[in-house]
Design a protein that fits this description.
By secondary structure, the protein is an alpha/beta fold. It has 2 domains: about 160 residues, 2-Layer Sandwich (VC0802-like); about 170 residues, 3-Layer(aba) Sandwich (Rossmann fold), CATH 3.40.50. It has 8 helices and 14 strands. The strands form 2 sheets. Strands 2-3-1-4-7-6-5 form a 7-stranded mixed sheet. Strands 10-9-8-11-12-14-13 form a 7-stranded mixed sheet, sandwiched between helices. α7 packs parallel to α8. The longest helix is centred in the first third of the chain and has 23 residues. The chain is globular and about 65 Å long. The model has no long low-confidence stretch (mean pLDDT about 95). Bound molecules: S-adenosylmethionine. S-adenosylmethionine binds next to α6. The site of S-adenosylmethionine has 19 residues, from α6.
Length: about 350
């Protein structure tokens, strides 16, 4: 056990303090709006149990004053000797304006560093199209993180305790006929919480869903694109292609009172309400056996975001435990989440 284990965590800029609070680790570097934190003093952190961490890395060292002419040599010298071999190389930047200006450089620099590491037998070559993960899936990944153009933090990730998404951001694409950009949020939630096999199994054409607070229809559209039939509950109008679509039944009702006539496969909910009120509603649906799975947003406009979130999640756990309902519960601040987080709740057999 190493009490001085150092962690590098990426987050949405502005949520650095929330990262510290939820890990309860000692803050070493927590600059406001930087999009990352360095923490110490916790030998074990579990990525899936963290909400505000986009990525969880073990920090090995850093290089300051990186010379513009030769960035490769000092970087290679600073890469730790152990682990001996990496399964992948990620060159990453914070989710800030400065980070965006650096991403062109990291794209150009990536093949140079990759080639040098492959030649030294420290990195497996990138997989060919269609090739499986094989040994790569178990090897640590090497992360070279540029907070700015002269500084580099060198870190590794455990493929079983992190995300494989570059910069910790799962990319999803928009469709031209989506009624709102919220379409992307539910797309991201499905990618983050379900692997491809689970998506194929649990988002099958013909399955049913209820969308509470559906207007103008982005989430409903995401479900319809996957072949689901949706009851969209909202007093507001659905827009564009979602209005009058044959697989969408729009009900102008109160989402807190609506209950389906038959159980559905999915419940999604994006109503802007107090987190505790939404948590109670979700719990009632699960205890009543009205859905198998749910994805919902908890809005966190308050100062004590971590406390409000924990309170809401604890109330779900307590209520479901008391009723003997077996479940899986995960919470994550997605890239498309602003002052809010997204929750995945699923009934387990
Ligand atoms: C953030 S928007 C939802 C956006 C939607 N997810 C999308 O993808 O387009 C919140 C919606 O919740 C609805 N809403 C808020 N309280 C509600 C309630 N009690 N019952 C039904 N809808 C409600 C609002 O009318 C609003 O359209």
């Amino acid at each position: 056990m190493n009490p001085l284990h150092s962690w590098l965590i990426y987050c949405r800029p502005g949520f650095e303090r929330d990262c510290v609070e939820e890990t309860q680790a000692k803050p070493v570097e927590t600059t406001a709006d930087s999009g990352f934190v360095v923490l110490q003093g916790k030998p074990k952190l579990v990525y899936k149990q963290l909400t505000f961490a986009r990525q969880l890395l073990t920090l090995h060292g850093e290089v300051n004053d990186l010379p513009e002419r030769d960035r490769l040599s000092p970087l290679l010298a600073a890469i730790p000797a152990s682990p001996e071999k990496f399964g992948a190389l990620y060159l990453e930047v914070p989710d800030t304006n400065e980070g965006k200006t650096l991403s062109g450089f990291t794209k150009r620099f990536q093949p140079l560093l990759e080639e040098a590491l492959i030649n030294k037998d420290r990195l497996l070559p990138s997989p060919l199209a269609g090739e499986g993960q094989g040994e790569r899936g178990n090897l640590p990944r090497l992360h070279i993180f540029f907070p700015d153009e002269h500084r580099v933090l060198i870190a590794t990730s455990d493929p079983h305790n992190s995300t494989s998404a570059l910069n910790g951001i799962q990319r999803v694409s928009m469709v031209s006929d989506a009624p709102s950009r919220s379409y992307l949020k539910l797309a991201e939630a499905f990618e983050v919480f379900l692997d491809k096999k689970e998506q194929a199994l649990w988002l099958k054409p013909g399955m049913t869903a209820v969308d509470l607070g559906a207007a103008p229809g982005g989430w409903t559209w995401q479900l319809v694109q996957r072949g689901l039939k949706v009851i969209a509950v909202d007093n507001g109008p659905l827009k564009g292609a979602a209005a009058g679509h044959p697989n969408i039944k729009h009900l102008r009702q109160d989402g807190f009172r609506f209950r389906p006539q038959r159980p559905v496969d999915w419940l999604v909910c994006d109503m802007v309400e107090q987190p505790q009120r939404v948590a109670t509603l979700m719990t009632e649906w699960f205890i009543g056996g009205m859905t198998q799975r749910a994805i919902f947003n908890l809005k966190l406009p308050m100062k004590k975001r971590v406390a409000a979130l924990q309170e809401a999640l604890d109330s779900i756990r307590t209520a479901l435990n008391n009723k003997g309902v077996r479940y899986q519960l995960e919470a994550r601040q997605l890239y498309h989440d602003r002052e809010e987080v997204t929750i995945y709740l699923a009934r387990k057999r």
